[in-house]
Amino acid sequence: MSFLGNTLRSMTALLSSQAINAMAGLLLVPIFLARWSSQEYGEWLAVTSLGSAVTWLDFGISNAGLNELASEHGRGNHTRYREVQAILTKFFLLVAGVALALVAVTGAWLPLREWLNVHRMSRGALWSVLVLFSARFLLVLPASQIISAYRTTGNMARTTWAWNWISLLTHLLVLLALWWSGSPVVVAAMYPLALALGSGVVIVDLWNARTGFLPVPTRGHWALLVPMLPAAIQFSAISIASFMTLHGSLLVVSYSLGAVAVAQFSVVRTVSNVPQQVTRLIIAALWPEITLLGSRGTDNRLARLHYAVSGIAICLSAAVGGWLWFAGDFVVGIWTSGQVPVQPGLLHILIAIGIPGVTGRA
Q: Of the chain's two ends, which shows fewer C-beta atoms within 10 Å, N or C?
């Protein structure tokens, strides 16, 4: 298939991924709040945010490894490709096992209920949710090496669609767990279950394809990780910064103000991020054309398109941000059925912080 065709397929899959995540966020929050109180939902957010702290344990090796795999496949060095793929899978299985054991031990020993201001969730339920959510994020490490076998061999769209189906399955299982049980432990168990089922389907597909790109952890030497370390350090810094931005703030709010404040901050932050989502969608939709112009060396047309896209993205984001400035509290009230109180000042601050980021991204 042509370069443009591959790019369009990849962009369709990526846009679908954003649509799935947006719809899930739109639907799941009111469903959670219909089943739980704002206190219980805030405690859930705090504990799951703590569980996601294990995401940085890939030490940046995951992204660096995917780049290495794509390079080896592009050079036609399939033997080296399989060796790198095998050692990455072996490394992440080892990391996942050791890290999960540490989470289980420290989670049972540390006074997490006191630190996170958790009052409704029992100590046993907190430990179970923490371990299950940590398991989900740790299983992503070896699973990403399996699912990204499509991406690193030139089929980015197939990898993205695999993650899309896993995301859809996760949301469906979470909805069923909320309806059937409502227990935070049962809901938390759905996340690693969906990932395991989706990864199993991919393993069967790779096995049936007989391409030889299914990871075999018995191959490879640890020395293959050494050339990836410089890039891994950079990716690791990005991963830690991302965690601190998305989840670290929730943990600080939970420790300082309690679970209800966590629910309020999370919901208001989601609404205030809508202008940034507008920019991401516009840039993602036009990325194939921008890439094509860049590859042809048509700098003048590329510059004009860049100015036009930037102007449109900034204007639309500012318009959406301006509307949310005045109507955001009404939107949150409708979205959460009035269960999450809104402080207009917090919403205004987050919108004001986000708009400069939109300008920089554009």
A: N
Q: How many CB atoms lie within 10 A of CB 111?
A: 8
DSSP assignments along 113-174, one per residue: HHHTT--SS-HHHHHHHHHHHHHHHHHHHHHHHHHTHHHHTT-HHHHHHHHHHHHHHHHHHH
CA-nearest of 33, 18, 6, 90 to 281 is 18
- For 97, the enclosing helix (H) or strand (E) is helix 78-109
Taking only the tens place, the pLDDT of each residue in 70-112 is 777 777 777 777 887 788 888 888 888 898 999 999 999 999 9
DSSP-derived letter for residue 212 is: S
Record the pTM: 0.78
Tokens 């299985």 locate to 93
Contact present, 292 and 11 (Cβ < 8 Å): no
Q: pLDDT tens digits for 40-77? A: 999 999 999 888 887 777 777 777 777 777 777 777 77
Q: Per the structure block, which two tokens stand in for 224?
A: 């293959």
Q: CB-based contacts of 238: which residues, under 8 Å, 6+ apart?
A: 60
CA trace torsion 147, 185, 255, 242 (10° rounding) = 10
d(CA 192, CA 282): 32
DSSP string for 269-315: HHHHTHHHHHHHHHHHHHHHHHHHHHHHT-HHHHHHHHHHHHHHHHH
- Token reading at 45: 């957010």
